[in-house]
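Today's session is about reading a structure prediction critically. Students often jump straight to the picture, but the first step is always the sequence itself: look for stretches that repeat, for charged clusters, for runs of hydrophobic residues. Only then move on to the predicted structure, which in these notes is written as discrete structure tokens rather than atom positions. Here is the chain we will use throughout the hour.
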Amino acid sequence: MTTRLTTAMALTLLCAAFASVSAQVKTTVPDAVPGARPATVERITIHGKALEGNLEGDAVDRPAIVFLPPSYASDRTRRYPVVYALHGYSIGAEQWTQEIQVPQTIEGAFARGARELIVVLPDSKTVHNGSMYSSSLTTGDFEAFIARDVVAYIDAHYRTIPRRESRGLVGHSMGGYGASRIGMKHADIFGSLYIMSPCCLSPRAMGPANPANDEALASVKAPADSAKLPFGVRAQLAAAAAWSPNPNKPPLYLDLPTPGNETAVLARWAANAPLAFVDQYIRQLREYRAIAIDVGDMDTLRVDTGKLHDALDAYGITHQFEIYSGTHTSHVAVRFQEYVMPFFSRTLSFETAGR
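Below is the predicted structure for this chain, in token form.
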């Protein structure tokens, strides 16, 4: 690979969260709730039609983890709402279970009074460690994979309530970006939306040029070589694969913001920032039964998350917003049990009439 990334000039949508997600499973674990009934855990594979033919060779058949509520096996005529929970950058679905401590937090939420529902954790990890839940010929269309392929599979194989009013979407960090992006574009699929500490909401300047990073990038001869790159440099490749794909530029099939093309490439990256396109999706956001946003007061993403809250406020879109005491990852499991699950219990439709 001969292109070089000039970080002094580059803007990036990979916000400061990427500096901390390498330790993403460090989170406070809530105490187990006495008497909580066990959920059933199923590990499945979902074929991603939207991912077929992706240029960097990411898997088309993707793992997913399904958590069925305690009554699912015994009450065989009952149907359930579904919550789709999106993981962050550098982790996959299995690591995500450790971060949010499922099934314990799911079982704890039910034991504390949340209504029973199905929870699905799809895996969107790529060769560069994260899909950004975006649509790209290089990575495949992970946006459509989540909104169409995963939802269609779950509806076909489980006793769901297959209506948008009975589907929730939540994500943390890169998953929070995915919940923002997919939520705005696919309000016809999901009925309630919870955005946790979202990364990448707006472009931001990088630090000074780093010759070591340029040298590391120059050593990449194939997509798999990115595994040896420093964390932040690998994240740059993930962003480029998602937001500036180039089918005519093997072996990585992407454009980096190098001298002579940085303006055009960075414009493509900026076009993928939710704070840049939120104004285009106000009608869709108004269709949600409920929207929630939260972020820790010690999280570097607090400012941009607040800007998303301000944007919704400016348009009069009803939503709840909370800045809680914590870092980017410190309370994710607690939040999932005590806030995310009860939120969907309150806001999703449990009615099956009209099927």
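Discussion point for the tutorial: The longest helix spans residues 142-157.
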